[in-house]
Every structure is written in C-alpha cells, then in structure tokens.
Design a protein that fits this description.
Elements lengths: L8 E6 L3 H13 L2 E7 L3 H10 L4 E3 L2 H5 L6 E4 L6 H10 L3 E5 L6 H12 L5 E4 L6 H12 L5 E9 L12 H4 L3 H17 L2 E9 L5 E2 L5 E2 L6 E8 L4 E7 L10 E6 L2 E7 L2 E6 L1 H4 L16 H12 L7 H21 L3 E2 L1
Parallel strand pairs: 1-2, 1-4, 2-3, 4-5, 5-6, 7-12
Antiparallel strand pairs: 7-13, 8-11, 8-16, 9-10, 11-12, 13-14, 14-15
Amino acid sequence: MSLTNQNKVRIGMIGAGEISAYHLHGLAATGMADIRVIMSRTAEAARTIADENGIDQISTNIDEVLGRDDIDAVVIATPDHTHMDFAIQSLQAGKAVLLQKPMGRDVVECQAVIDAASRSDAQLSVSFMHRYLEEVQAVRQILAEGKMGRILSARIRNATPGPNWNDWFFFRKNVGGGVVKQLGVHGIDLVRYVLGEIVSLSATCSIQRPERVLLDGRVVHPDNEDHAVAHYKLENGADVTHEISFNELSGTDRFRMEIYCEEGTLLLRTQRGRLAIFAPKVTGQNDWVIPELAQSPFGQMHHRHWLNVFGGAETSEGTAQAGLEAVKIADAIYTSNERKEWVEV
C-alpha cells in the first residue's frame, strides 16, 4: 500500500516532552500522517504540545488511546523506564509502534518488547534518527561501492550539554545507565549501520559533573555517568573511538564522525560541513570535495520510511533488533568500565 494524503496513517503520540516535537514535525513533513491525539501524564503538557502542532484531541490515559479504532500506530516518546510497558501494551492492542531509543533500560526489557512484537501482527520499529540524514545515506553508498578501500579506523563523538529540563535523566534506575544509553546508543547504532559490526570493546565511564542545576532551578546529584570513551574493534578489523558526553556546552551537531580508509577520508558533520571527502584517486581532485546534498526537513526521511514500511512500500531496516544490539553494546561498555578490561560483545 503506497500512502497518500487521502490514505494517511492515523497516529497517537504517546508523550509530550522535548523529543515529541521532533516526531510531530517529522510526521507532518511527510504529508502521510494524521495525528489524532497527544497523550501525556498531565493534561497541561499534552494540551501545550497539541496546541503548538494544531492537534485537537489530548488524553492522559494510554488505555483510552490504545482502545481507539481510529488509531493505526503510536509513537512512544516517554521516559525510558516506561518504554517496555507502553510498547508491549501497544503491540498487544495491535498498534504499530515507533519506539524512542533506548528501546529499554537493559537487554531483558528490549527482548520482552521484541517477544511481544513476535506475538503480534503489529510492526515494531525503534527510532534511530541519525540514520536518516542525507550525509549518512551518502556515506553508506560511498563505502558500499568499495572505491575507498578498507576502513582502517574511525572516530565518532556524541556530545550535548545534557538534558536540563527534567531530573529523571540523571538516575540509573530510570534510564538503565547514563549518557551511554541516553545519547551513546545513537553513535553505537551509526557505527554498526555505517562501518560494521562491533565484536569487542574497551571503555571508561565517569561522572564529571556531580551537581547539576536544571532550568527550573532544581539541583540534582546524578548517580549515572555523564562521560564515556569507548574503543571498538570491528568485525572487518577497523578500530573505532567513540566519545560520549553530557558536558559540552556547545554540543556536537547531532554527531561528528571521521572515517579513515585506504584511499582517503570521509568527514561527517564537522567544520567542513555535512560531508567532506578527501580521496584523490576517487574524486580526481587533490583537495577536499564537498558534495551537494539534498536538505529535507529534519525527521522527514525518517518518518516517511517508517510510514512506508507500515504501508508495505519499503522494507524494514530491522531497527528493533538494532535497538536490542545497541543496548547490549552499551551494557558491555559498563562491564568493561567495571572490569577495566576488553570485553567481547
């Protein structure tokens, strides 16, 4: 089924926090979705984001949302400790699910969601937004062509100032870890998606800011890491360094990646732009080449793919299994930090 404006997927948005805006804007940009309701724990939060996005209906009850016949699918964008229960409930109700990363707080929760999907006819996807940037797709294509030769090494950095709008992010019981699971899973997924499978790793984690002041003035004392550095050995032999931080005031623009191959270098989202290539034998130029890339609205490609998978027009990229693998690797990072040794994934 190819979706059109006359045949839109009817969506329930579960969650009204910061990330909900990304999903709502991305869905709107596709022209393929009809957002029927915003659900949040409080009516005030639901009404605020509903009004901002021109949506009439709100709810504070997930059972009410999942019981509606006029909803085909839900986006779950709620605090991490709710992901498993909300996803399982939604799948049992026959609703397709786009589940915000991390998929769960640990491998057990992730597997429980996958098992629920296997017992349901409903589609399960996990939200890895960075896959669906034009520069990422371009680099995957370049590497797949093989002209760059073997990947020798790479560096990736995920960094932000940290989430200062709520306190739940800063306690291990809520997120199953810290910055590695909150932010690092993006980079872990990109490494696997772009470069290859991670087979072993070594990592260190630390709390560099033991006290944080939130936007509303509350002071929190985190019990989970806000900084980590991981070294990955890939199945193809490449070495990758991954830095993850909630302590960079300017932050990276989603991520920064440097890929070093036999025949040249690929830079993503650096000072040179979204994509820069230095590979004289490939480009025919002994200088940096900046390819012209399309610039779609942020989130459009991501949500269009999800809706097309729902409609049968595209094949799933297996993001549910990727969500499980990302959490498995995050847990391996914690194990390496505790044991102070390399661990196999």
